[in-house]
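<backbone_tokenisation>
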Amino acid sequence: MKVTSYLLPVLVLALSIVGYIVARDQSATLRMLVGARSGLDAETGGMELSNKDLNTEATAVAKNRSNALKGNETLALEFTNAREEMEGVKKAADEQAAEIEKLRENVRDAESGCDSVASERARLEELLHSVPGLENSDFSSAADDLRSMVQKNSAEYASFLEDREKFEARRTELKKEVADKETELAGKKKANDEFMQTYRRNGEDFSISAVDPQWHFIVFRAPADSGIFPGDANTLIVQRNGVAITTLRVVSVNNGQVVAEYDEQKLPSGVVPEVGDRVFRKAVQGS
């Protein structure tokens, strides 16, 4: 590239010199032709030329001039081509220089990447050595060891999931059992509360306030929470001086007034219920 840059100025200088010499020769020849046509001696020998000779000389001069011009054009074209070629070479050289610089940057990046890989490898080795069971493993075999551990842990995890599913199933069963027990307990608690409420009524007695011997009815009053209902299974008895004289069947309960009937055939001879007799439950409630 440096030789080409030196040759171009020399080539231009040579073209200038050749053009100057050709122009000088043509100028001298023309002066000869002009002098011959005017009947004067030529500067080169003083001989007189005919019109035919003058035309021949003029044609030769014109041809030489044309050839010289064509040669100049050819040289100029070659010069232009050489310059374009030189510029192309320079452009290619610049592109190669840019590619080289890019390659250098890639090399630097690759070296930096190698350093990062080495650092990451060292970190991974340290991490692997911190895993129980891989303390003495090198990096090349650590992956296999780690894979084996993962497979083993995967199997253990699968077993754990299976146990967990069984546990969840058992837990669901136990929750259902607990719910059933709670329901049963709530039922028992309710029954117990009712029993205790009824049990507290076992000592209650009620005084007969009216008697209808014709229809065998008696009337007495009882609290609203006495637990006495029509058709009560716990038959009531009538006592006088601590002696039972008959039993009663509840017919109706209205605003605390209880109407019950008695069986005349079960009365002792000559005895009928009277106002003031006491009414008790036949059987202890809650038993």
In short: The chain has three domains: 2-104, 135-199, 205-281.
